[in-house]
């Protein structure tokens, strides 16, 4: 009898231990782990994660590839250009966030970026490499002037040499550094009255362009990326995740607006889906990612929210990660609201740019009207 009772007690104790172990292993431990993860990502004052949020503790690689023209003489005679991809030119991108205001559940800030050329990762390419390319400001100014000021084109034609100086050609050869950062000079001081009038018109055209700067002497300087180095971003307002960790980093407004304004809205009224601001600033994402759902982040260089789809499980320096990416479908131009019908020469029958290109006239201004995903 005692043996039977002892066996029953042993079985009962074993069952309790199994149940307890199961609860610890499948309920309590995952909850503890989840709570620890949450505590490491929610943006709380005086924490490591807030420090990392303000100063990203590592540099990212910013890679630039440029398409050069290998047969400029043929092109100038009306031939088809042969394009060569040049690069990569790799820059180490350092980012900080300047916190402006913190409330119980939100934080406002501006982003600052600093680029440093990496000669090792770029080898054998150098910033001093000469590349023959389309003269971007030359073509942009002519195209916009033709559309906005057709009666003044004869005036602009008379002033071209004074306006563009040594860059008065539709195709130019410049260094990678000039194109990206140090810039192409326009409208240098001149005694020509005609050039003065033309440059005043050009300053008006360029007023909304982020990548052209008015210099102290009144001249203009165009570059592709220098404005990102010189100017802070617009103001972000995002969730801190204190109410729900799934909301950490989610943007409530950018530039004091809950929507982009660069893309046309439906004629019947309402807000175009292309103007919606979704996701984060791409530097922070919520924990516990669901691979069956897309991630979203805004890209202010192209003034849109970018959908990132799960691709595969991978790792970074031994740490398991999940890869999300935006691929060719991002620039398929099937969303008609991204079609502005401003840029000419790369259009489909419906007026949208060809697949792989995106029209940016209303985003960065007239000085950089097109973007190619391949670049």
TrEMBL record:
What keywords tag this UniProt record?
Cell membrane, Disulfide bond, Glycoprotein, Membrane, Olfaction, Receptor, Sensory transduction, Transmembrane, Transmembrane helix
The signal peptide stretch is none
The family database entries (PANTHER family) matched by this protein are listed as: SCAVENGER RECEPTOR CLASS B TYPE-1 SR-B1, SENSORY NEURON MEMBRANE PROTEIN 2
Q: What name has this protein been given in UniProt?
A: Sensory neuron membrane protein 2
* Family of this protein: Belongs to the CD36 family.
GO molecular function annotations of the record: scavenger receptor activity
* Key word Ion transport present: no
Q: Which GO terms describe its biological process?
A: sensory perception of smell
Q: Does the keyword Disulfide bond apply?
A: yes
**Ranges that cross the membrane:** 7-29
Query: Where in the cell is the protein located?
Result: Cell membrane
Q: Which InterPro entries match?
A: CD36_fam (IPR002159)
The Gene Ontology CC terms held by the record are: cytoplasm; plasma membrane
Q: Which organism is it from?
A: Mythimna separata (Oriental armyworm)
